[in-house]
Predict the 3D structure of the following.
Amino acid sequence: MTPSAPSSARRYDLDWIRVGAFGLLILYHVGLVYGVYGWHVHSVHTFEWMREAILITNPWRLTLLFLVSGAALRFMTFRRTPRQVARARFERLVPPLLFGAVVLVPIQSWIEAMDKAGWPNGLAGYAAWMVREFSFSGLADGVPVNHLWFIVYIAAYSVVTILLWRRPGLIDRIGGWLEKSLAGPRLLILPILYLIAIRILLFPWFGVTNVLHWDWYNHALSLAAFIFGFSIVGRESIWRDMERYRWVALSLAALALPIMMAQVWHPGGRAFWGVPKAMVYGLDQWATIVAILGFGSRHLRSRGGPVLTYLTEATFPLYLAHQTILVAAVWVIRPAHLPAGLEALSLLLITFLGSFAVYEVVKRIPAIRPLWGLKPAGGRPWPLDLEALRRPAARYHRRRRLLAVGIAAPLLALTVVAAAIAAYPGFDNATQYLSELGGSTAQAPIIFNGGVFIAGAMAGVAGIGFGLAVYALTEKRIAGAVIAAVFVLAGAGMSASTLYPWPDPRHMVINLALGIQLAPVLLLWGLASRRDLPRLKIFLTAIFVIMACLTVVTKHMVFPGTVNDANVGWWERAYALVLVGWVGVAAWLLDRKLLQEAIKSPSGGSVAQVAAAGE
């Protein structure tokens, strides 16, 4: 198909409405903490009036979001083919959904299990919960998505709408029919009648389940809103009528809301099979939507700016993060028994500020941006640039990737140790060795053993990168090979030691890892001819001196009283931090140097040859 031509300019009013609706969603979820309906966790304070208060936004908020989301999809179709739109939707929605289901939602579910079912707390309890959730039996029961059900529905509705759009002229015919049928007062009357009809005919049988395959009232409501929003983009007569009837719609909504609240509050509100209640509900639903769209179109259509740009990009990460942060905040704050007002204010601030903090962090890390619903930095494909495989690669890219493993390995090792300590109740950092984290007394030894095994393998890979980097910079083959061999042996010792957990005597194969103490000296030897690496050489010298001093004061050598059974753990922590941490810094400095040389000499001879020619 030939891509559609644009029919209208960007609609900033829809962006403002989308941002506002998601902001209200966060407020709504904070309100549920104090409500009488079932939710993940509740405050010690419960208010009966929340049953009526949630009706301020409950009838229309999500319907409005689906309508605006349909309109946003329509703007994506301008100058794109259906295949391109489908791929863009997949790239934007599927990574956050998978990430959220595996990382964000289990935290909420675990806290709810602790709160309602007495599930064990602590890192060991969380690890056990993850094993249970993603075991065969857990997966057979389905993967909870909690608040991420909205992403599932947006993805499904996008597929349906794109298939409709593929049929030539169908969307134009639907849009034309809507434009003709909803002219004048019918813009208010006909949608209200439709909403009342599905409320009477479908809601009593299906309710709202948020389960895609059994949520037919919700589909009749939300899918219709999505396709409606998709179809009316560019239909200016509909938007003019929304502006024209915005005050009428606002008046109807203001009249319907208190009646709807009274029907929920009063025992007779469901009289006559709930038909009067359904009528008022549908009236409030559509009248509020028309009022919001009408006032937005009238006053916000061309009001963009940096604030809107920031909030528009932040909305998806905030949506992903807010409920996990809120549930965790309730769990932490509730035991303090704060006054209700102070507690609610604290939850609001923590949820909003925490969500914005998450956005500020993830937007700066290119590797995880798509996991949080953000476009890849610089428009680069993610997670794999297939076209790059067909293009000539940048010089030294393989060496730099190996060094990147060296940067990541210490971070992984330190994270694993911290997690293993947290999962070991009563672990004494002053007297116990790190190897005990993977021994028989540990509750979750797999954390330490599995993590150290992977970190050891990464150290070996990084060592090859170090050796190749030294060869690229100096053409010293023997130095590069010796450096790589030392790292590979050290990594093999780390990995092999985890196969024989402490106190198995074979665990002492980890002593091979101590050979990495020689690596700074070997790197200084290999890089001796380079005069342009003073910072790296100073760093390597300092690291070797520090490790030598720590070795000298150990209780196994001289100064036997300095390190003893009461503080050997702290000595080992300091030694391990230096022994492992320097590798990441050295790998980063060498990576920067290779990058500089690649830019300086993108093709041709080796770095050493280029440097010699320059001299």
The longest helix spans residues 82-117.
